[in-house]
Amino acid sequence: MTGLIWIVLLPLIGFVLNGLGRNSLSKPIISLIGCGTILASFLLSCNVFGAVYTARQGGEDAAFSQTIFHWISAGNLHISLSFLVDPLSAIMLLIITGIGFLIHLYSTGYMKHDAGFGKFFAYLNLFIFFMLLLVLGSNYVVMFIGWEGVGLCSYLLIGFWYQRVDYASAAKKAFVMNRIGDLGFLLAIFLLFYTFGSLEFNDILPKAAGFPVGDSSLFLISLLLFIAATGKSAQIPLFTWLPDAMAGPTPVSALIHAATMVTAGIYLIARSNILFTLSPATMEIIAIVGLLTALLAAFIAATQNDIKKVLAYSTVSQLGYMFLGLGVGAFTGAFFHVITHAFFKALLFLGAGSVIHAMSNEQDMRSMGGLKKKLPITFVTMLIGTIAIAGIPPLAGFFSKDEILAHAFAHNKILWVGGFVGALFTAFYMFRMLFLTFYGKFRGTYDQERHLHESPVVMTLPLIILAILSFGGGFLNIPEALGGHTGLSNFLQPVFAASTSKNTSGHLSHTTEYILMGLSALAALVMAGYAYAKYIKKAALPAADHEDRSVLERLSYHKFYIDEFYDRVVTKPLNGLSSLFYAVDRKLIDGFVNYIGNGASQAGTLLRLLQQGNVGYYIFYMVIGIIAVLAYGLFII
């Protein structure tokens, strides 16, 4: 397939050019390079997607591979730098490059006055390069290189304003917590090669389909891959890095939280779907962890006052829904939610950035209010994003979230109840954010109000495009119950065919689907109405930081003290142990080695005194030596 290598290389070229010329190139040139390379990559991705789509229309599996070069050959281990394009990776290409381009375009306005403008665009391009490598890799090693690369870039982007200690700490936290998951991925790679003798998807996945359900090797492999996904996609217990990632510039939040890094774990499991389908125990773990993450994050989001923190915990919650979908076997539904979430979450983060830009970097919603007249485009687009994520029809989030909940209902009613409760919280905290930000009286300072203005067109144009996608994205996979033809499911069918054939979950009647859809939509509307009554009719405001709160509200506001728990149980003991080892190393080990060295040095100094160059001294030493030898012969022998 021609042009495939250039999809990956163009962002890398942009990184090199902007990286080397960050201090010499003008900002318009940097913007042109940064945005232009991603746009060109997107156009090439459209061409690749068109080829895959045409093949699927012809009834083919539509999987294309391309080997760039043979990389490692040692015994039975053969690894190539090669790419695989199929319906799954083709869609990811469009998401990464398409939304990535919109974020790049937005950044030209948002970062216009930042001193690190060139460096920022270089990091963005490098991030896109590694993400493309991750989704295009035809084997687990190439995927792992991309996996590690996006982890590195997230560290660089989250800590972009590293002069602030808390921002640098947030970047370090993200890097360290992701390393925990990465270890699981690395161990899984070793076990995959031991079990299958290859690391290529086209070798492993067909062989795995012949394994019995519940095979112990597949269980361990799938569990390790899930641990890897838990770190990258921010699930319990490795989710606390993602809200802290808000330290980075807002476009970084949109890039990491919407379409790229956090969806890498979902993509890993979707790509390896048959390994998980044949491991029911792992699937149950995924479903339970996903549901608990969705509920915990939604409950925390309901009391946050930082507009970006609300969206951050919303991302964690929505990722939990995706894992719930994967755990109940709704691979298409989970991936459908990846697509729609990329639309409305990128929209919401960029919209929040527009608000912060207008508010002179203020992020606390208690200091906002009444912004809809001053920021009309931002308001309308964020309203669309809020309706979409709340699951109100006919916007995108309704269709994708409903598909996950329907599969959860068919699999286990308790899982559906938990997912339904999470949907209630989602509608509440999102409309709470919207009403506190855009309605009521302005609560900021006079200077902030005087400088309120709509963002420039390079920032509002991406909002408009994403709002359109958030409105119509759900029509990609309209269920049969609503007269649709499940287009996305049919397109992805070859990717999940092996898992679908082994899936024993029951199917719901259209009547049951109608009831579940109606309950979900009605619940979202009720919670939106409750938020309206509380924050507009009653004009309630979130409590100040020093005010008393109820027990549940205090737990939510302080994020269940999970960070404090980790600090006390993990961080401080490790720091104490490190201090102990440091003391042992410096005082005991170094002290012993230094004592031996100093002893030898002192002995040498004493022996050197014997070499006086005086013949009389040497004769005296000889006499002493003769006496010693005679004494030894007489008294010892």
Explain briefly what this protein structure is:
The protein is mainly α and 637 residues long.
Q: What is the general shape?
A: globular
Strand arrangement across the biggest beta sheet: 1-2
Give a short account of the largest sheet.
2 strands, antiparallel
- Average pLDDT over all residues: 90
The topology string of helices and strands comes to: HHEEHHHHHHHHHHHHHHHHHHHHHHH
The percentage of residues in β strands lies in under 5%
Low-pLDDT regions: none
The total count of strands amounts to 2
Quaternary state of this entry equals single chain
End-to-end C-alpha gap: 92 Å
Cα-atom Rg, whole angstroms? 30 Å
Secondary-structure class? mainly alpha
Given the structure, what is the number of helices? 25
Classify the helix fraction into a percent range. Answer: over 70%
